[in-house]
Amino acid sequence: MTNAFLISAPQSGSGKTTVALAIMAALCRRGLSVAPFKCGPDFIDPGYHRLVTGRPSINLDGWMCPETFVAETFRLHAAGADVAVIEGAMGLFDGLGASSSQGSSAQVAAITGSPVVLVLNARGMAASAAAMVKGFEYDPRVRLAGVIFNNVGSAAHGMLLKQALSDVLPQVAVIGCLPRDEFLAIPARHLGLVTAEDNPLPPEYLERLADLAEQHLDLEALLGLEANPSQSPLIKGGDVFPPLHEGEGWGEGEVRIAVARDNAFCFVYEDNLRLLREAGAEIVAFSPLDDRELPPDLDGIYLPGGYPELYAERLSTNVAMRSAILAAVESYMPVYAECGGFIYLTEGMEAMESGASADFVGIFPVRVRMLSKRKALGYRQVAFETDSVIAAAGGSARGHEFHYSEIGEMPLQLERCYRVTRQGLELGREGYRFRNCLASYIHLHFGSHAGIAESFVAACRRAYHET
């Protein structure tokens, strides 16, 4: 069995991320190797996981990906680590809808066979906290192993909480009581938390996190929790995907694909890169912010999402890189871009309150404007209506969309490859293609469609042999 547990909560804002980071920091300080995971399509929390553990954090999502893929992904990345820590999303049972567990942390717990440790914000509660915890035992697929009470006001308050839970659920361990500590709040921004790249968390903060866990949590109890593989649909094995290091190639492959990896482009599902590697690609990192030219001998480019609006001036003034990417697209090199990467391929951004307008690569003849309110949020399913560099017509894939920007009206003559739906609701056509360049606001998970990585590598291979 694998030493593993899933940190969840009754609702967002309970302190899951802070608690998960504190536990990871304390275990790493003990010299243990920690394999971090994140439920759902979040890109922010995995960045902090990686900062603390030194390992890439892997997204586990039972709606975007088949359950067998989720189980295998967990097994692959947990292998060789001393302990696997999964951070949940939202509340434990919150997922796609009111009556479906798809996309929920509970679904991931069931798939991986991982016990759940519930983080409960106990501010203003005593015996009521036990009643709340008891309510989370209603799903027999989920093994509730322990509780961490957060925002505890005093030692006496902690004793009340422990006694109340012991009276009602003696089989559920109290892992600890965390005191209120405003110092540990992580800054927020309009898209959620500030990225780890922009807020790298100083060593003294990480030390305080580790101290908090050591002083107030029963880490030995956590290290005694195990995932039960008999409860998860495991499939065939493979090698663990090694940690990524900026500026390096990660393995040898038949084709070389450049992936943008810097502060502006830091939102990518790590398994997308693993699947590209397994399909025969060598992944080479580059920075549209700092590099003046693309890596040599390329066969394709992957531009993931991020916060290009925060670095618009630097991206705009790096004319050499903009020109290099434009030339690559014009020469029919396969290029796949999503969200922030898509924005970078437009003509640029309209002026914002904090700065002037910015010019970008200019592949797509629209400009982007930032909005004060969120433009899109949620899961998306795309049907491939035409052939592209990532799929043949007729299939479908799943992903997620989350942004505060919008584009101008895209010319009708520019081809749309996707028909987009949300839980059966038609959202229109998207997935814009110019030559061998495909761009979209949607972050597709390559694990949702068995052929995406293979198709992109094959497109790059064809382009290589044709040049």
Summarize the structure in words.
Helix 5 links the parallel strand 5 and strand 6. By secondary structure, the chain is α/β, with parallel strands linked by helices. It is built from 13 helices and 24 strands. It has helices at residues 16-29, 44-53, 67-78, 105-112, 127-135, 155-168, 203-216, 219-223, 270-278, 312-317, 319-330, 340-344, 452-466, and strands spanning 2-8, 34-39, 58-60, 83-87, 116-121, 144-152, 173-179, 188-189, 192-193, 226-227, 255-260, 281-286, 300-303, 335-338, 346-349, 358-359, 364-370, 376-384, 396-403, 405-407, 415-422, 425-434, 437-440, 443-444. Helix 1 packs parallel to helix 2 and helix 5 (127-135) crosses helix 6 (155-168). 28% of the residues lie in helices and 27% in strands.
Which terms summarize this structure?
467 residues, 27% strand, Rossmann fold, 10-stranded mixed beta sheet, 8-stranded mixed beta sheet, elongated, 13 helices
Walk me through the topology.
Blueprint: E1 2-8, H1 16-29, E2 34-39, H2 44-53, E3 58-60, H3 67-78, E4 83-87, H4 105-112, E5 116-121, H5 127-135, E6 144-152, H6 155-168, E7 173-179, E8 188-189, E9 192-193, H7 203-216, H8 219-223, E10 226-227, E11 255-260, H9 270-278, E12 281-286, E13 300-303, H10 312-317, H11 319-330, E14 335-338, H12 340-344, E15 346-349, E16 358-359, E17 364-370, E18 376-384, E19 396-403, E20 405-407, E21 415-422, E22 425-434, E23 437-440, E24 443-444, H13 452-466
Parallel strand pairs: 1-4, 1-5, 2-3, 2-4, 5-6, 6-7, 11-12, 11-13, 13-14, 14-23, 15-17
Antiparallel strand pairs: 1-10, 8-9, 15-16, 17-20, 18-19, 18-21, 19-24, 21-22, 22-23
Helix pairs in contact: 1-2, 1-7, 5-6, 9-13
